[in-house]
Every structure is written in C-alpha cells, then in structure tokens.
Design goal:
By secondary structure, the protein is mainly alpha-helical. It contains eight helices and two strands. Helix 1 packs across helix 2, helix 2 packs antiparallel against helix 3 and helix 3 runs parallel beside helix 4. The chain starts with a helix and ends in a 15-residue tail after the last helix.
Length: 276
C-alpha cells in the first residue's frame, strides 16, 4: 500500500511540475542579467594589489550570481502563480509542500543577503584600494565583525562613487519590504512566519506595552505567490541599480590603482579619519 501511495503521489507531483515548467518555458524572461568579468586590471600588477584583484574577482562574480538567482526566482514564482490559480486545496498543499515553500523561503531571504554582501564587498575593496591613496599611511585595521554600511563608512567615504553606491544599496530589504512581507525573514528565523499559498499563522499575538499585557486574535493570511513575486521584483530592481553603482565604484578604484602603478597619484580614496 505504501509503495502504491508513493507511486500515485509521485505521478501527481511530476504532472504538477510539468505544468510549472510549461508555464515557465512559455513566459518571456523578465529582468536583466548581471554581467561577469566587466572590469579591467593590468596583467602586470604589483604584488601589493594581489589581494584586491582576488577579492574583486570573487566578490563581483558572487554578487552577479546571487542577483541573477533572484531574477530567476521571480520568474519561477510567476510561473507557479499561473499554475496554482487552478488548483484545489489538496493540490495547493502538494505544491506548497514540494515546491513553493522552499522556493519562496529562499527567495524572500535573498534581498537581505544581497544587501549584506554589497556592504561586505565594497568595504573590503575600498579598504584594499585605499593603499593607492594612503600609501605608507595605510593600516590593515579593517573590522572583522559582520559588516553593515555604517561600519564600512570610514573606509569608503573618500571614494567619490561611494555615496551613490550607498544610496542605491540602502533601499534593498528596507522598511517597505519588511512591512509588506510581514517581516518574513526575521519572523521565519525567530518565530512562525506567514505561510505560502495556504494556512494561517500568528493566530494569537501577545502585546506588552506600557506595563500591561494584552492578546490579539486573528492571524496572518498566507502569502500569495504572485504577491511575493511582486515584492521581490521591486527588490530585484533595487539590486540592479546597486550593482551598477558597485561597478562605478570599482572602476574608480581601478583608475586609482592604475595611476599609482604608473607612478602618479590617486585622485580619490583613502581612510576617513577624525582629522579629515
């Protein structure tokens, strides 16, 4: 009986996935693709720039990878949205359990990861590139804790393109996304987040305020697949703009490195100090 049940269930899921793939294949691909190997560093670099070169190669490629993943996930969610609209309750449970929950959970966490990776990459690259401006005054004192935009500010602020980069990164995973998603990422890790497609959560909420405690009853409705795709499309577009600003910042750094390599001086960059 168990084998027969598994066989029937597998057949249902295969048909369901085939419908999804058909919807995905027929839909026009939406979005942009972040490029690879878009920078140019001289082959005969001084050994002191090896760290910068290796970091840039890894960080720029991984940022392109994760943003392109987000683009793929938005398209995948839109395909599932076309499929689930015609499903009954049991079929929606199957779709959520086998496919949508995993896709949605990963996709909803990507904007936060991308924002953090932008800060990590820009901070390290600015710090290494500051050698061009600081010369012998350069100190390898970069923080080792988790890096946010405020943490990297002293190492990045004297690069002219940094402010534009920061302004493009800040909106990613911001207040609007947090509120519209019922703070999904935080609640998923520290409580019981909204579900996808079917099922309610947070039916009882404890509210402590002003020394008194009350309880609210109701619950969070499940997140629709199309709703999630719409939210992530906004975040995806923020990421595109941030990647463009990241490219501009890197090109400014490469110009400074090239100038110093040729015996000149860097036009920008350097560690921001209290005396600056």
């Amino acid at each position: 009986m168990t084998d027969e049940f598994n066989s029937v269930q597998s057949e249902k899921l295969c048909k369901l996935y085939s419908r999804y793939r058909e919807a995905l294949d027929q839909a026009p691909t939406d979005g942009q693709w972040m490029p690879y190997r878009w920078w140019m560093l001289r082959d005969e670099l001084n050994v002191c720039w090896m760290t910068y070169s290796q970091m840039l190669n890894e960080y720029a490629s991984e940022l392109a990878n994760i943003i392109n993943d987000l683009t793929h996930h938005v398209n995948r969610l839109r395909a599932w949205d076309k499929v689930v609209v015609a499903l009954d309750v049991d079929e929606k449970l199957d779709a959520a359990h086998e496919f949508v929950d995993m896709l949605g959970t990963v996709a909803m966490g990507l904007p936060y990861a991308i924002k953090s990776r932008f800060a990590f990459a820009a901070g390290h690259l600015c710090h290494q590139a500051n050698l061009a401006a600081d010369g012998e005054r350069w100190k390898d004192d970069f923080p080792t804790k988790n890096l946010y935009l405020n943490d990297i500010e002293p190492y990045c602020a004297k690069w002219r393109r940094y402010r534009g980069f920061k302004l493009r990164v800040e909106p990613i995973a911001g207040r609007n996304f947090k509120e519209a998603s019922a703070d999904f990422r935080n609640v998923y890790n520290h409580g019981f987040s909204s579900r996808f497609l079917i099922g309610m959560t947070a039916t009882v909420k404890r509210i402590a305020k002003g020394g008194s405690v009350s309880y609210a009853f109701g619950g969070n409705e499940p997140l629709g697949v199309g709703e999630v795709a719409n939210l992530l499309e906004i975040e995806r577009n923020h990421c595109y703009q941030a990647f463009d600003a990241f490219q501009r910042l890197v090109k400014e750094q490469i110009a400074a490195i090239a100038a110093v390599q040729a015996g000149g001086t860097a036009a920008s960059g350097g560690r921001l100090t209290d005396n600056t």
